[in-house]
């Protein structure tokens, strides 16, 4: 029997080839007992039998090209031998071609020659590429890289081999292109397609017909500004494909009437080498580029010339500092300006270009201002917070401009911004309550007290005017007692004051500035009237009409110490001015009576004689003021035998002693002191309330 299988050449060892047991019709269990074995007709064993599975497996990787070469078919013949009974089976395995080889040219590079005067249609044969694969996997076609002058032609030989040829399609010019480089590609018909390439170099043979040529005819050179004089700008690349004098070139600047050639002052040209160098400093800000025309002339006869055009573009370096221009400044600015108020318009410019001309504007962060970009290179300085003229009446604002070049350049400009005052502060007294003292009976216009107020504003907002308010606390308007100087705050009396009528005044004073709207504040001055000794003592007892005398009778036998009567007097003044003392006016005769200095008691000083005439006493009451004031009363004392006694006998009354007199004085002083302190305290409490 004969079995036939096929396997692609790229299968891995161990791959399944065919099911022997099924195709032979043999039970799997009998394969081992019948000693199934494989005999190869060649010297190399490429397959093996799996007795367990009864299948034919690939033992090693197959290479169709190595096994069969260029043969159209490739088959491997095997023999299977089984015993009991002995049987021989023939197995044929077809090795299928796989596109595993790329086309390949005999030489990787082909060099051809052609004269520049060759006619279109001229053919240049090429060598054929080889591909070991067969059938559709072999060479399918050829391709040539695009060319203005050449194309590809493919001819088929009688054996089917494709022959590539290069065909000239357009006339050549060696001075334009002396060598043509093409790429020839061979493609097979496999999937995926594989290819091989060869470089084709075609040399064009010369004819002497060329002028000098600049390469490139128009060129550009970038050069930094401020380079040292003599710096090489460029060396012109001029070629003349001719030889001898026809290829010897001289250089010169080309100057026309339309282009006067300013560049000749800045650049020099070597006529032999074509080197262009600087001969003066170059400034980008003066001109950023220069156009230079150069004539290249050979020495042939007739001479032929070419022209080179060079554009020298200067590279800007950061050699200019930014410039700050203060376009507008609103100074002064109101201190109540809202955030965002435009203060100044600032322009900035930098003669440099690119990053060297990109300028950032900065202002100190601690200032209540910020910069806002209006449009390119223009900024607005606006308020960035509240202003307070009382804290800062003006600002020295420093604006700093920094470019982005390397190294950076910076400049700064400082200007002064004045803050205009707004009436936002009320006048303020140094104290809301003050105390003043004035002597009673002072002349009208007497200075009582000077108030002082301050206002941190300025100008008319700080111009202060003082006035007295009428608070209605007194029965009579306070303005009838006092007036105030509206400019300096000094309080004066309008009329004489009477301590006995008014002891203390509350004078409310208002200070107002001249701002719009006006602001004000108040203070209260407590004016205490100081007592003056302007009231003479008044005798209360005995009360007698002026010019009359008080008659008092006493027993004729009244003994010393007998209380005759008591003088009672009062004084409208206070303090020392109200301290009273009693005494008898001196008389020509000695009187048998005495008056207690402090109490005013009149007592018998010595025993009276019988049938003694009435005694006329003048008792004087004097206060302790400066100067001292006094009053007097006339008392006529008549001794009588059976006089009705108005007072107790001397034995029934305690006699006055110096100790009693001092005690009375101390009591008077204490009462007066307590009264004064109480009045002051009540006045202060009332004022604060």
Automatic annotation (TrEMBL):
Its main location: membrane. The keyword Repeat applies. Residues 6-105, 106-214, 215-324, 325-429, 430-539, 546-656 form the Cadherin domain. GO terms for biological process: homophilic cell adhesion via plasma membrane adhesion molecules. It is found in: Cell membrane. The chain crosses the membrane at residues 663-687. GO terms for molecular function: calcium ion binding. It is a single-pass type I membrane protein. SMART domains: CA. InterPro entries: Cadherin-like_dom (IPR002126), Cadherin-like_sf (IPR015919), Cadherin_CS (IPR020894), Cadherin_N (IPR013164), Protocadherin/Cadherin-CA (IPR050174). This is PCDGM protein. It comes from Aegotheles bennettii. The gene is Pcdhgc5_1.
């Amino acid at each position: 029997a004969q079995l036939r299988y096929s396997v692609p050449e790229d299968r891995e060892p161990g791959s399944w080839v065919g099911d022997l047991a099924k195709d032979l019709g043999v039970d799997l269990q009998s394969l081992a007992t019948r000693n199934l074995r494989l005999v190869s007709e060649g010297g190399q064993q490429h397959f093996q039998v799996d007795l367990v599975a009864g299948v034919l497996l690939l033992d090693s990787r197959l290479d169709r090209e190595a096994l069969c070469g260029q043969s159209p078919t490739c088959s491997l013949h095997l023999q299977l031998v089984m015993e009991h009974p002995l049987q021989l089976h023939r197995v044929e395995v077809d090795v299928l071609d796989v596109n595993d080889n790329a086309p390949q040219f005999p030489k990787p590079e082909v060099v051809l020659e052609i004269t520049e005067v060759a006619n279109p249609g001229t053919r240049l044969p090429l060598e054929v590429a080889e591909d070991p694969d067969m059938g559709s996997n072999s060479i399918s076609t050829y391709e040539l890289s695009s060319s203005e002058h050449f194309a590809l032609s493919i001819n088929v030989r009688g054996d089917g081999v494709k022959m590539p040829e290069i065909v000239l399609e357009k006339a050549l010019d060696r001075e334009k292109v002396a060598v043509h480089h093409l790429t020839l590609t061979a493609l097979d018909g496999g999937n995926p397609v594989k290819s091989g390439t060869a470089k084709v170099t075609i040399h064009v043979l010369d004819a002497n017909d060329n002028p000098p040529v600049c390469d490139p005819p128009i060129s550009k050179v970038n050069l930094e500004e401020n380079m040292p004089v003599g710096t090489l700008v460029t060396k012109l690349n001029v070629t003349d494909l001719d030889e001898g004098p026809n290829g010897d070139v001289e250089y010169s600047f080309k100057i026309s009437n339309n282009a006067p050639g300013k560049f000749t002052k800045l650049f020099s040209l070597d006529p032999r080498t074509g080197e262009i160098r600087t001969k003066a400093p170059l400034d980008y800000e003066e001109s950023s580029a220069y156009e230079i025309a150069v004539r290249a002339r050979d020495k042939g006869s007739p001479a032929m010339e070419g022209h080179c055009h060079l554009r020298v573009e200067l590279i800007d370096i950061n050699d200019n500092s930014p410039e700050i221009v203060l376009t507008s400044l609103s100074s002064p600015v109101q201190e109540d300006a809202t955030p965002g108020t435009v203060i100044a318009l600032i322009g900035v410019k930098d003669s440099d270009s690119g990053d060297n001309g990109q300028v950032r504007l900065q202002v100190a962060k601690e200032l209540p201002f910020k910069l806002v970009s209006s449009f390119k290179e223009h900024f607005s300085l606006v308020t960035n917070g509240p202003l307070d003229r009382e804290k800062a009446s003006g600002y020295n604002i420093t604006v700093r401009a920094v470019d982005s070049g390397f190294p950076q350049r910076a400049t700064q400009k400082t200007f002064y911004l004045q803050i205009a005052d707004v009436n936002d502060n009320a006048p303020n007294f140094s104290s809301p309550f003050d105390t003043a003292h004035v002597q009673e009976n002072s002349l009208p216009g007497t200075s009582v007290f000077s108030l002082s107020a301050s206002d941190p504003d300025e100008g008319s907002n700080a111009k202060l005017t003082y006035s007295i308010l009428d608070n209605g606390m007194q029965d009579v308007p306070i303005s009838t007692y006092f007036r105030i100087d509206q400019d300096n705050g000094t309080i004066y009396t309008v009329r004489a004051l009477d301590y006995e009528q008014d002891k203390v005044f509350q004078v409310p004073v208002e200070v107002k500035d001249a701002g719009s709207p006006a602001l004000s504040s108040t203070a209260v001055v407590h004016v205490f009237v100081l007592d003056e000794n302007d009231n003479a003592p008044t005798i209360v007892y005995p009360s007698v009409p002026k010019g009359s005398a008080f008659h008092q009778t006493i027993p004729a036998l009244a003994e010393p110490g007998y209380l005759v009567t008591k003088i009672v007097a009062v004084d409208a003044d206070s303090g020392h001015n109200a301290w009273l003392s009693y005494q008898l006016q001196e008389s020509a005769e000695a009187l048998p009576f005495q008056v207690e200095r402090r109490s005013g008691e009149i007592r018998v000083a010595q025993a009276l004689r019988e049938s003694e005439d009435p005694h006329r006493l003048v008792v004087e009451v004097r206060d302790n003021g400066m100067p001292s004031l006094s009053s007097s009363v006339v008392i006529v004392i008549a001794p009588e035998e059976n006089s009705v006694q108005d007072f107790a006998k001397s034995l029934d009354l305690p006699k006055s002693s110096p100790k009693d007199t001092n005690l009375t004085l101390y009591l008077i002083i204490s009462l007066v002191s307590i009264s004064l302190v109480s009045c002051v305290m009540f006045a202060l409490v009332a004022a604060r309330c």
